[in-house]
Amino acid sequence: MSDLEPRPEPHVLGGLGGVAARPALDLLPGKTVTLGEKMQVRRLLPTLGRRMVGAWAFVDHYGPDDVAGTDGMQVIPHPHTGLQTVSWLIEGRVHHRDSLGSDVSFGPGELALMTAGHGISHSEQSPVAHPRLLQGAQLWVALPDAARDTAPAFAHHADLPGFSSDGVTATVLMGSLGGATSPGTAYSPLVGVDLALDAGADVEIPLEPGFEHAVLASSGSSVVEGAPVEHGSMLYLGTGRRTLRVSATAPSRLLLLGGEPFKEQIVMWWNFVGREGEEVAGFREQWEAGERFGHVEGFEDGERTPAPPMPPVPLKPRGRER
């Protein structure tokens, strides 16, 4: 997905200043933003109080939305640099096309992983014939300096590993958990896992204590370490946890995100991740000039997302927290 706010706020992220040195239970306030013409999403990262969880730098959660009789998701070509997009559906289907020539429709339980690296453009749309409900999450992973200029790539993994135990079914999107390892390529130590909880489930999930973690209640509501987490909200868990106790009285879904604290300072503005404000401004100029990001087939000339104006003040580091 694209950050389609007309005047997106610049964010300087990374560094260790805002990483909790111990376990935490901080409810992160999200905000509702409009994506495309009508679709609304809940933006959980970056948000007031926290900008990153490991290398996870952006989290949008949407649905369940009734898209019967509508076009559903309609995000026309837009650019990315210096990051990976991780697309995860609970309900519905999305048609992905990009400037590499990828043309894939994916659904629930499938991983769509796009590595922007040096630069890529893509579109995301509901197919013409699509299911009635649409629900899922769009996430961005910041690439470390050694990988941020890598060649762009796209991978679709229809079968993902996982495990079931004590009323929870875990599907590993990225990284490893409980002996299951995702086929998705990661460039820094991280984890992303969908946890489907049965009614009455009460289970402990193993964690890497050196990671910081957060959970998103993507469906239903759950209790995490004694704290209620309602649909569409995110709970930051800090570091130092070896296990995580989760329970639910009704069928629910949690998205567990974590990773080694991201040490580098990065600048994230609109759909770009760079290291300096001037570099990000250069990405914008190249997109507007039709350079660097290629062309997505299937769209007429000029059918692309225009870049918003750069903010009037220089981008300045402000750390991981706000």
Automatic annotation (TrEMBL):
<feature type="compositionally biased region" description="Basic and acidic residues">
    <location>
        <begin position="294"/>
        <end position="304"/>
    </location>
</feature>
<feature type="compositionally biased region" description="Pro residues">
    <location>
        <begin position="306"/>
        <end position="315"/>
    </location>
</feature>
<feature type="region of interest" description="Disordered">
    <location>
        <begin position="294"/>
        <end position="322"/>
    </location>
</feature>
<comment type="similarity">
    <text>Belongs to the pirin family.</text>
</comment>
<keyword id="KW-0479">Metal-binding</keyword>
<dbReference type="InterPro" id="IPR014710">
    <property type="entry name" value="RmlC-like_jellyroll"/>
</dbReference>
<feature type="binding site">
    <location>
        <position position="122"/>
    </location>
    <ligand>
        <name>Fe cation</name>
    </ligand>
</feature>
<feature type="binding site">
    <location>
        <position position="78"/>
    </location>
    <ligand>
        <name>Fe cation</name>
    </ligand>
</feature>
<dbReference type="InterPro" id="IPR012093">
    <property type="entry name" value="Pirin"/>
</dbReference>
<dbReference type="Pfam" id="PF05726">
    <property type="entry name" value="Pirin_C"/>
</dbReference>
<dbReference type="InterPro" id="IPR003829">
    <property type="entry name" value="Pirin_N_dom"/>
</dbReference>
<feature type="binding site">
    <location>
        <position position="80"/>
    </location>
    <ligand>
        <name>Fe cation</name>
    </ligand>
</feature>
<protein>
    <recommendedName>
        <fullName>Pirin</fullName>
    </recommendedName>
</protein>
<keyword id="KW-0408">Iron</keyword>
<dbReference type="InterPro" id="IPR011051">
    <property type="entry name" value="RmlC_Cupin_sf"/>
</dbReference>
<dbReference type="InterPro" id="IPR008778">
    <property type="entry name" value="Pirin_C_dom"/>
</dbReference>
<feature type="domain" description="Pirin N-terminal">
    <location>
        <begin position="40"/>
        <end position="141"/>
    </location>
</feature>
<feature type="binding site">
    <location>
        <position position="124"/>
    </location>
    <ligand>
        <name>Fe cation</name>
    </ligand>
</feature>
<feature type="domain" description="Pirin C-terminal">
    <location>
        <begin position="193"/>
        <end position="292"/>
    </location>
</feature>
<dbReference type="GO" id="GO:0046872">
    <property type="term" value="F:metal ion binding"/>
</dbReference>
<dbReference type="Pfam" id="PF02678">
    <property type="entry name" value="Pirin"/>
</dbReference>
